[in-house]
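Continuing the series of single-chain predictions for the mutant panel. This is the parent chain; the variants come on the following pages.
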Amino acid sequence: MTFEQLGLSAPLLKALAAKNYTQPSPIQAQAIPHVLEGRDLLGIAQTGTGKTAAFMTPSLQRLAANRPAFLKPGQIRMLVLAPTRELASQIAANAEAYGAGLKTTVGVIFGGVANAKSVRTVQRGLDVLVATPGRLLDLVDQRAVDLRNLEILVLDEADQMLDLGFIHALKRIVKIIPAKRQTLFFSATMPKSIRQLADEYLKNPAEVAVTPVATTAERVEQRVTFVNQAEKTALLTLFFQNGKDIERTLVFSRTKHGADKIVRMLGAAGVAANAIHGNKSQPQREKALDAFRDGSVPILVATDIAARGIDIPGVSHVVNYDLPNVPEQYVHRIGRTARAGADGIAIAYCDREERAYLKDIEKLTRQKLAEEALPAGFMQAVEALKRLKPEPRREPQPQQRNKRNESGARGHARDPQRHGLPRNDPRQDMPEERNGPREGGRSMRGVPGAARGPVANPARAGAPSGGQQQRHGGQRPGGGGQRRRGGGGGGQRRAG
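Parent structure:
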């Protein structure tokens, strides 16, 4: 099977060839013919399976075949809704690449950038707009965007949309777009809530899925180490100082504050890392991602929400510093490694209170994680880490009135119900990470391998540090909502 055999036009074939994509992935082979026919589609696929090309390339072909003579100010022909800034940016970049030969106009809007810039993006009219729900509704309220002639609606990462409380925002958006449209619906999992949403929005959809439910990447070696919560940072420090064949490592923290704390402690031990989460400004997030992508700072500490949609090749290790309380999130996390035919390693740190989470993960994935003992010199590292004095948290900048989270929604304190969050939603004020490592002293002497770390101290290497430490806010544990069942797996290098 080739892209040409799927019915894609010459400009799209040229764009795919420029990205070195020659063979369609399973999701592309299944989805593209249905989208070209104009059918609604329900697709079950994770990030990294090629789903962006699966819905974007045939949609661009349909848009090009029926392009109007001109677009009205603010008119949008195709709308792609994404839960996070990073995913929105990634989708828009792919749309521009695929549509270059079709003269497709593409724009992206999300929170964290000036409202005026978002207005300028849409005011000329666009073939394709990629947006987070919150920022889109802002422009709708300002009458800056016109959705009355929308032809194609795409909901990407629908399960994450629901986890973030965007259900009411989605329902409002659907009410103001034409009933006669093509709707493409993608989700990594298929819980009951997603099925109900699909039944409401889709008309006689084709259904495609690329992996069995809740499978994990076959080439990911999975391990677990049982360790007290307060001693996890020492274990992580030893991992980086003594580890071999560590290329890029993605570390998952349950909370924003926890992510910043990990970065500070690693930095005090001479290991450079950056954090990415919703309290980081957009420039900080982009800087951290660029440093991770080019390898100058190959350690990225992230929350689940911020990491959603990040598709960076060459991630050799995923460390679950905190186990997610929603087992499907584990599948999403470890799917960040073992891409493009490479092998990967996923390591879980499990505290006594997280054993129930581990049990749920093993039940969902139908496999038992291999137990890995604590390394030699662990207790010395724990004691040495207690003497460290990491760089203190910097005071956050004053919050602007329209400060937004990573999903582009308004700050909850201003109007939590505006985008589907009840006023007393627990995500507004989640507790900080418990039992963090003790802080004191300055010396790292006595820690085995302290001079052999794969990454130098950022102050000495000239690499970007973990960035300014901003106000720590709540992060839903595990990035999740209701407990869900189902998942997908990673795959080979694919378009999109």
